[in-house]
Structure prediction request, 655 residues.
Amino acid sequence: MHILKESLMSRLYVPIHNAVCAAPGSKTFQLLEMIYTLIEPGTLPSGMVIANDLDVQRCNLLIHQTKRMCTANLIVTNHEAQHFPSCHLPKNLGSIKEPGIRQLQFDRVLCDVPCSGDGTLRKAPDIWRKWNSGMGNGLHGLQIQIAMRGLALLKVGGRMVYSTCSMNPVENEAVVAEVLRRCGGTVELVDVSTELPQLARRPGLKTWKVRDKGLWLTSYKDVPKYRQSVATPGMFPSGKSYDLETDHETATEKKCEDSDGKSKNGPELMVDSVAPTSNLEAEVSDLPLERCMRIVPHDQNSGAFFIAVLHKLAPLPASAANQKKPTSSPEKTDSSIATPQDQTNEIKEDINGDDIVLSGEADVQISGTTPDVDSLDTGIDETHMDTDQNKINEQNGKEEIEPSPDVKTDAPTVPAKRKLQMQGRWRGVDPVIFYNDEAVVGRIMEFYGIKESLPFKGHLISRNSDKNHVKRIYYISNSVKEVLELNLLCGQQLKIASVGLKMFERQTSKEGASTPCQFRISSEGLPLILPHITKQLLYASPIDFEHLLKYKSVKLQDFVNPEFAEKATNLLLGCCAVLLSRESSGGTPIAIGCWRGRTNVSVMVNAIDSQELLERVSALRPEEEAVHSNADSSIPEAVGEETMNVSESTPAKLD
Prediction:
């Protein structure tokens, strides 16, 4: 099972949302816990999670937060969500061996879109100074694009959750309604009112008004002609567009403009004005939007959230999956708000297995600055935004797309036509290379006695193309392996920030170079590999285990248990795992990575983790034994050449 988490991103539109959201990685962590629920200890689930974010810093934070999961079933990517690649394999591969999958599709998609974040005002009151109604209107088009792309990547029969932390119906029900209209009967809105009965929730809205330029608009007919590129039909409950010129346009323009002809953007925006209209009744959506879920702060002392569950019944229709690009208009429009044609044009499901080819506007990289209120209301020409794609990726060989001779490479213009995701290596991102050095892999397997129960060969990768200077080796599950193989055959369309579980690290010290195996087991990989290794294992008594944690390095002759010292002496020089005996650990093995030197055993655990683990081990021991140990045991810390200079790591606990 594949799960795509789309924090999908152009979170750069509203940096406020980044600050007030829960720590990145919490939803990804929960998804990983779900796929790990029913597996046996020491085994890997058949599913995987792909987490995506446009912001590189948020990607790094997500990677840091999920490290404690110690999983080989996670890929973190760095793409614009609305342009996430499907990695569709060409039909004619020739003699190339086909991978396990031919296209990147998902059983479940979590579409946590960027939003105005007004549902988090309670915990982030500073939003009051920055919030305005234009934020939701400005994000409406992007949210539709992201949701449609998520559905295009979803398998038939799969489900997608669309969520925001906003209360604005333009960002919530209006998006869901527009998605349902575009998808026709291929997607249905699922009724989840019986799920989680103790969760206080309210049904979705079927009628609402849209606020624009200080006016409350009940229908698209009320929108002045000069604002029709900003307030789109999809923002209203019916979604209908009217090709009519209403009589109230002149009056509305006068109401929205001051004496200088400029739009007011001050206290008068908060005046509750309603556009003159002959239609006094508010529109009501004919879609089952009551199946959506609204969580409001005052129902259960929480923040505000919106949730909708969509079920894909059939492939998306051609009108939603592939629309021709509309002709451009010389009139400037709001760059943050896409028209229905623009939104649909950028969403294409790979029905025929062809690469996605869009116009230049699809490659525009949104600036990371906060959108000004004036820009949301007056419009910005998209051609003046940062479009230098060479800052993000690069091309290799014949696949490189040469710019037009008429266009300068450093000019902020967009080529007439280019592929959505350039194929080739991504600039500034380490490559993902399958590690196939048979000699090194063979030494690792022999040194640690790795059993056949752990799929090993073919499941190791590195992020360095020079195999002679590889410092870290990562382990990947079978599902991740299939995705990486597909990505390589498709020209490395995925921009991978992190993948796999760091399993081995090269020991670069002088003594490490003289050992049979220079690669030591990392703390992250120890929980996974420990049940599958038969060599370099030591079982310690609670006293010796405590001494290792307390003194970091203990000489062989200073161990309290002579049997433990003898077994340690018989180990080969290099990395080993020291386990607290099952009788002392309460049935749950606790292990730490150590280095067996010529005369001592050194612990590869940092000070904070050592202290935490030391307290846990002390709590497991009888009180009398602990007091006796503290009173009688005094072991000098080993110093000098025999103390290994190892990197800090974390103790491993097996479930």
In short: The longest strand covers residues 154-164. The first helix runs from residue 15 to 20.
